[in-house]
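Assess this:
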Amino acid sequence: MEPTQQDLKRAPRMRLHFNVHDPVELVEMTLAFQGLGHEYQSYLRARFADTDPKSNAAEVKLYLTRIESNCILAELAPALPMLGAIAPVLADVNTVHDFVEKTAKAIRWLIGVAKKKGVTSDEIPYGKRQITNLRDVVRLVAKNHNSNLGLAAIRYEQESGQDRAVLEFSFTDFECRRAEQGASIALAALDVREKADREKVLMYFYQTNIEDPKAGGRTGDKAIISSISREPLSVYIIPETDQQKVRYVLDDKSHNPLHTGFVVDVNIENDRQGRPRIYRVVRVHDVVYDDSDA
């Protein structure tokens, strides 16, 4: 049996406001709602782990209780009458309050990562799926100028019959773009394995691409690490800060970039015969200039 509108109205709700003025792609809007739903279930699993380990947070479904057409304004609530023993926890507005607060804190953290232009994997307090979900939430606003993202915890007050926001956050389109950028940086850092296959080896570029570095590192580049292989292999610089560091050195016209060495930690991808094929640079320690270029 589906919950009634009255059932949902009495539950604490989240208000998600995509104040955008340009058309949005349906898939991106769906991903944004889906990402928020996944995060709420993850939050509930962690919360019930202490109070009621047998509860299944996956059974908690969020329903749209209101949507407006002049912008993407939606309210989402769990169906309390259908949730049995876990309903009292979800009926507490503090549950939604804390989730909204944690979500806003995570978005602010992503903005901070973008400002720093880099982060190491051990500095990241969130998992890949959580970061991906948050990126999906902010991306809708990030692509629309003069827009903003609103997130609020809403409580229905029986006495007055009115809703009241107990907590509200708002992020501009600029902040959402920063958060999206921070998410991409953090995801790239998490893709890097904790320990490199070889540490502090000397690498020289054999061929460089003059285009801007792509999301996964510079493309079209080949490098030689003679202690591993004398053949030039494709190379990808994974951390964004190191991408920029290497680009600065290679673009410097005062020396020959192919004579400049880089002391790096590297992961090695082998082909089916076990021969090295790709270098994934996970850290740049130092730059070694050729004295003859001076």
